[in-house]
Amino acid sequence: MTKQPQTRTKGRVSFIVLMAAILCARSVAARPWQTPSRSGVGAPSTASGQAVFASSCAGCHGLDGRGGERAPGIVGNARVQRMSDAEIAAIISNGIPDTGMPAFHTLSPEQVRAIVEYLRSLQGQEKAQPLPGEPVRGRAIFFGKGECSSCHMMRGEGGFLGPDLSTYGSTRPAKDISTGIINPARIPDPAYRMAVATTRNGERFSGVVRNEDNFSVQLQTADGAFHFLSRPDLRSFEYQSKPAMPTDYGKKLDQKELEDLVSYIISVGRRARPDAASEDQDLREEDFQ
Question: How many whole angstroms from its chain centre is CA 65?
Answer without folding.
Answer: 3
